[in-house]
Amino acid sequence: MIGIIGAMEEEVIAIKRCMKINTTKTKAQMEFCLGTFKDKDVVVVRCGIGKVNAAICTQVLIDDFGVNTIINTGVAGGLYPEINIGDVVISSDTVQHDMDTTVFGDKKGFIPRLNKAFFEADERLINIAKTAAEEVIAPYKVYVGRIASGDQFVSSMQVREEIYTTFTAYCAEMEGAAIAHTCYLNELPFVIIRAISDKADHSASMNFEDFTELAARNATKILEKMVEAIRQ
Q1: pTM attached to this predicted model
Q2: pLDDT tens column, 36-53
Q3: Is 198 known to be catalytic?
Q4: Has 161 been annotated as catalytic?
């Protein structure tokens, strides 16, 4: 069973339209749609924006629905200087850019107890996602790189530069690292797929509104190819 998570309705509505929904269940005020997508058993859910929502959603998918793979798809703001709106980033790993225990001598993003900052995506899923993306999103580019997450919509050059300089992240969003963290604790393979909807700068709010639909549509095309390639 594949768990597919999006933060906003725009990110999951196209997927729901393409799948056969057999039943829906509500848990933690989230609607989980069970059915088939490209003849694979899937659970599709909108987790809501932010890391807490994303982590709770991921744990419910694992505990209540027994998923063995999690894919998080959606949009993000570009940080890497060469990245453009419409391009896609596949996570090599993730980091929480707003996790800060530097007062104790830790580096930013470091998570005490786990003694790590970066959560690596599954190599096989990365390769499947990259191949799928390269097939369907031309002329846009596909990057494999770090994705930074925080409870903040990045819309200033100063914050954008700080996150990029600190973590060398390709894009910033608000859920992926929490999903990755939860998957790590549960020893479950995951990958995060982000279509770039804005440049995480002063024009981010305007670009986000204009390009979210395009970016989400590209992510859905990738997901279709991915699900076909994943053996349950």
Answers
A1: 0.93
A2: 998 899 999 999 999 999
A3: yes
A4: no
Using CA atoms, how far apart are residues 161 and 189, in angstroms rounded to an integer?
A: 30
Domain count, the chain: 1
In a domain, 154, yes or no: yes
Report whether pLDDT(200) > 70: no
Residues 133-171 pLDDT 10s: 999 988 999 999 999 999 988 887 888 899 999 999 999
Alpha carbon distance 98, 181 (integer Å):
14
Please say whether the beta carbons of 44 and 37 come within 8 A. yes
Tell me which of 11, 93, 175, 201 is the catalytic residue. 11
Residue 231 forms part of a structural domain: no
Report whether 75 contacts 153 (CB < 8 A).
no
Q: Residues with Cβ < 8 Å from 105, sequence gap 6 or more?
A: none
Domain housing 199:
2-226
- What are the structure tokens assigned to 55, written together? 């982590």
Give the torsion through C-alpha atoms of 80, 84, 87, 91, to 10 deg.
10
Please indicate, yes or no, if residue 232 is contained in any of the structural domains. Answer: no
What percent helix, strand, coil does the chain show, rounded to 5? 40, 30, 30
23 has which bridge partners? 34
Q: Of 87, 93, 175, 198, which is the active-site residue?
A: 198
Q: Name 13's Cβ contacts closer than 8 Å, sequence gap at least 6.
A: none
**Residue 12 covered by a domain:** yes
The end-to-end CA distance of the chain, in Å, is: 6
Integer-rounded Cα radius of gyration of the chain: 16
67: CATH: 3.40.50.1580
